[in-house]
Amino acid sequence: MENFSEWYHNILETAGIYDLRYPLKGCGVYLPYGFKIRRYAFEAIRDMLDESNHDEALFPMLIPEDLLAKEGEHIKGFEEEVYWVTHGGTTPLDVKLALRPTSETPIYHMMKLWIKVHTDLPIKIYQIVNSFRYETKHTRPLIRLREIMTFKEAHTAHSTSEEAEAQVQTALNIYKTFFDRMGVPTIVSQRPEWDKFPGADYTMAFDTIFPDGKTMQIGTVHNLGQHFAKTFELEFETPDGGKDYAYQTCYGISDRIIASIIALHGDEKGLILPPEVAPHQIIIIPLLFKGKEEIAMNKAKEIYKSLKNTYRVKLDDRDIRPGKKFNDWELKGAPIRIELGPRDIENNKLTIYRRDTGEKFQIDEDNLLNELNTLIDSIENTIKEKAEQKVKSFITILDNHDVNNIKETLSTKKGVVLVPYDENIYTEEFEEEIDASVLGTTEYDGKKYISIAKTY
Ligand code: A5A
User: What's the rounded Cα separation, in Å, for the pair 377 and 372?
Assistant: First the structure.
């Protein structure tokens, strides 16, 4: 992939994922095919959160100015990014309303009403909503949005600091498993003080590496300590009759996971989708030879019926050349294609094409379900392994902090550079010197490093 950016923009359009032509910077349109990928990806995280005792909720998008401004550090971190609603029709509003850039303030305001005694805790809620940030850096589709269309934010409150700390670990594990299911390898770093979430005690971040060697933050987990709890008076009665403030965490992911799935797995021919998020996992294409059209079409319908309760399967019966159909579904990244030609049908065989490796082979029709099960697993693993190799090849470990060496490595090898942890150089000044971002402190193969990269 020579020019990643061009490839990426192109595929969003040609594969029918996202239309960039909406006349507003940082905003675009999920097209039906892209919307389905989004749906399956976020269904996976929704299931995982539900299974780990989170409850889905829904809060208003509008936040009164005094509420958003209540927590000093938080509002300072976001003040340049907030969109304001100032009028209702032609009437100026008494209190300006922010479009949520994130929902700590509305959620914690409400938590105060819900938390009285320790038995009211823990609370673990999440919502999947749009949020708004007036990003001033270069906007990019699904990567740096001004309307973040799919913002999954979870917020928790606990009665002890240990429990909140354990929740951070749980959240990190949930995200790790989720990114793994999407086949997206990540590096986890504790962000430096100067780059943590506004109002957090500390921030853990997941970064992945795109094909151009730049990193992208695709998720964060924050330990908020009692910072917000004190501001929002989340006070509760402890088991021994005393008083304490809740201990909080929050964590979020966004449309960036969709961008990562596209970017990390795709190739020159187009998308390669992991079966879990593929809108159609299997495409059936009858090869309609003259005089034998009906045989192929009937067989295609029969196979479709036998698979539709197990897989997301589509019978492509459009009246166009099979070659054109092959190209379309390769571009759209459908994991498996089943071709049905007259000779195959006579011999009880099916021709299978797998998109991730480009292999084509025949199987016995009798054994179809078994074969597909194995194939889906194999595709999932192969996609994952390939992405892991790609990302790994972008990680360089240096044994010193020589600025020129770091700069040289970043410009030639790109990706992430790991240098031995040293608190003396773990500073903003060092970050300026190397002209790249310090991702934070990273454990890699059991050792502690400072991770450095050019970021999106
Ligand atoms: N309330 C916490 C969870 C929060 O807002 N954290 S955050 O600011 O780090 O955002 C969570 C995640 O949303 C980020 O890690 C990033 O992956 C994604 N994100 C942030 N700004 C974005 C933007 N402008 N466009 C797309 N995704 C964005």
Answer: 9
Distance 147 CA to ligand 1 centre (A): 11
Place of tokens 């099979």: 322
What distances in angstroms separate CA 384 from CA 4, 11, 213, 215, 275, one per listed residue? 20, 20, 18, 18, 11
Residue 374 neighbours by CB distance under 10 Å: 11
For residue 227, CA distances in Å to 66, 104, 162, 246 come to 18, 11, 16, 9
- As a dihedral over the C-alpha atoms of residue 255, residue 257, residue 259, residue 263, rounded to 10 degrees, the angle is 180
What distance in Å separates the CA atoms of residue 441 and residue 164, rounded to the nearest whole number?
21
Q: H or E segment at 10?
A: helix 4-14
Which residue is listed with tokens 């192929």? 296
Q: Are strands 123-132 and 147-158 parallel, antiparallel or unpaired?
A: antiparallel
**226 and 247 in contact (C-beta within 8 Å)?**
yes
**How does the average pLDDT of the chain come out, rounded?**
97
Main-chain dihedrals φ then ψ at residue 455, nearest 5 degrees: -115, 160
Domains of the chain from N-terminus onward: 4-265 (3.30.930.10), 282-385 (3.40.50.800), 394-453 (3.30.110.30)
E strands, 80-172, are: 84-88, 91-99, 123-132, 147-158
* Calpha distance 263→297 (Å, rounded): 36
Question: What's the rounded mean pLDDT across residues 222-238?
Answer: 98
3-class SS of residue 321: coil
Report which protein residue has its CA nearest ligand 1's atom 5.
Answer: 102
CA of 419 to the centre of ligand 1 (A): 26
Q: Is 65 in the pocket of ligand 1 (CB under 6 A)?
A: no
pLDDT digit string (tens) for 275-309?
999 999 999 999 988 888 889 999 999 999 999 99
Would you tell me how many other CB atoms lie within 10 Å of the CB of residue 94?
A: 8
Sign of torsion, CA 19 32 128 53? negative
The residue written with tokens 């010197």 in the block is 433
CB distance 145 to ligand 1 below 6 Å: yes
pLDDT at 330: 98
153 lines ligand 1 (CB under 6 A): yes
Tokens representing residue 254 in the block? 């966004």
The atom of ligand 1 lying closest to the CA of 146 is 24
Ligand 1 geometric centre to CA of 133 (Å): 9
Q: Choose the residue to mutate in 54, 137, 148, 196 for probing ligand 1, maximizing ligand atoms within 8 Å of C-beta.
A: 148
